[in-house]
């Protein structure tokens, strides 16, 4: 298939959506599909050669096109893209009309792409990856939540199918008026994220003694991630266990204020590939305090690394973790309950303990190849469902 894949975040940006999108694009290309990535230029990138549409600059990769972009308000590390539906149609006419349009993010670039697809009668699919309507309350804009939700519903209902990561999210969105939803799970590379990556030298660099325990948070340092709850959990637990340490891997607009407020926490910045795998495996308990994530790929990475995981009973964690068996769950919004769950996780955090082994076993059943094959099959099915009646109609007229 020829696929136009629209995303407003892509490597080298580091976040769950960009990395998952890049993995999906790589899989589809490996399977022989011609995937045209359309994304905004990132801050460090030159404009490049402009097409006669005036809207798109190409890269050295003929299957990657860049649009104008600007920083997201209150989130300057990420950008949104800008194009018109007419500009996209002209681009496709010149370089090949896609057989499918897929949008991975819900910004204005994706809105233009779905409008262009509808205008040309093209099959279109979308990912629901981020609860943007829930973000507004973390930035003093809670009054905007109904408007943001209405925008998201309008965007996704232009698609012939929207992919969601869990059945619970599909049920919630259906109740809110989202149509044509399909559940596609996530995966993890268990050969990369493995207990075998535990590094005693790294633990010593963190100031950890042989019998001490390490709490870990991995992710963006931003208001909607509820990071301060993880750090408050550390403060609560270290009064009971003086040798306890806390490591935070990630960047974001809240790093400076968190580092100032929690001087005993070690902030190690963004970690990639093998360095990130060593961080996971060298810790003992993983804290995931978010209530806005739709899934949380980091939960699977931590489980695959054999960590005792603490999370709220929501989103992806609720489908992956059985409390007391392979991790610990707290009731959403229950701060004291999260503290108690972390205390129980710490009790079960011996490196070769049964709970941590069961965490690893669960992750081994969640491989990326299976998830991406299912995604690819669904894309092909949408194209067939949309185009087959048209082919039959044209055949009848012939």
Automatic annotation (TrEMBL):
Residues 14-191 form the Glycosyltransferase subfamily 4-like N-terminal domain. It comes from the Bacteria. GO terms for molecular function: glycosyltransferase activity. CDD domains: GT4-like. It holds the Pfam family Glyco_transf_4. Its EC number is 2.4.-.-. Keywords: Glycosyltransferase, Transferase. InterPro entries: Glyco_trans_4-like_N, Glycosyltransferase_grp1. This is Glycosyltransferase family 1 protein. It comes from Ideonella lacteola. The lineage of its organism: Bacteria, Pseudomonadati, Pseudomonadota, Betaproteobacteria, Burkholderiales.
């Amino acid at each position: 298939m020829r696929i136009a894949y629209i995303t407003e975040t892509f490597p080298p940006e580091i976040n769950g959506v960009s990395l998952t999108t890049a993995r999906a694009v790589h899989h589809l290309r490996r399977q022989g599909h011609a995937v045209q990535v359309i994304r905004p230029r990132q801050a460090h990138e030159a404009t490049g050669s402009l097409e006669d549409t005036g809207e798109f600059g190409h890269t050295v990769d003929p299957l990657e096109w860049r649009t104008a972009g600007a920083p997201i308000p209150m989130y300057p590390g990420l950008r949104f893209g800008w194009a018109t539906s007419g500009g996209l149609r002209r681009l496709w006419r010149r370089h090949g009309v896609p057989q499918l349009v897929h949008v991975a993010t819900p910004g204005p670039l994706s809105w233009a792409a779905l409008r262009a697809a509808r205008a040309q009668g093209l099959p279109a699919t979308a990912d629901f990856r981020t609860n943007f309507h829930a973000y507004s309350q973390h930035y003093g804009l809670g009054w905007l939540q109904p408007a943001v939700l209405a925008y998201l519903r309008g965007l996704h209902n232009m698609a012939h199918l929207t992919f969601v990561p869990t059945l619970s999210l599909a049920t919630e969105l259906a109740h809110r008026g989202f149509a044509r939803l399909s559940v596609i799970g996530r995966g993890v590379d268990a050969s990369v994220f493995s207990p075998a990556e535990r590094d005693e030298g790294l633990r010593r660099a963190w100031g950890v003694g042989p019998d001490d325990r390490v709490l870990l948070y991995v992710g963006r340092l931003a208001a909607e991630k509820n990071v301060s709850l993880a750090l408050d959990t550390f403060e609560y637990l270290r009064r009971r266990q003086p040798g306890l340490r806390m490591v935070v891997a990630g960047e974001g607009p809240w790093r400076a204020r968190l580092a100032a407020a929690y001087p005993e926490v070690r902030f190690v910045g963004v970690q990639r590939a093998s360095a990130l795998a060593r961080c996971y495996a060298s810790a003992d308990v993983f804290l995931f305090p978010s209530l806005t994530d739709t899934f949380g790929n980091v939960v699977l990475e931590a489980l695959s690394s054999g960590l005792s995981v603490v999370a709220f009973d929501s989103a992806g964690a609720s489908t992956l973790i059985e409390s007391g068996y392979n991790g610990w769950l707290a009731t959403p919004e229950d701060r004291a309950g999260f503290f108690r769950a972390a205390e129980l996780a710490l009790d079960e955090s011996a490196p070769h303990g049964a709970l941590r082994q069961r965490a690893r076993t669960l992750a081994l059943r969640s491989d990326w190849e299976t998830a991406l094959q299912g995604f690819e099959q669904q894309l092909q099915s949408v194209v067939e469902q949309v185009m087959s009646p048209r082919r039959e109609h044209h055949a009848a007229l012939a």
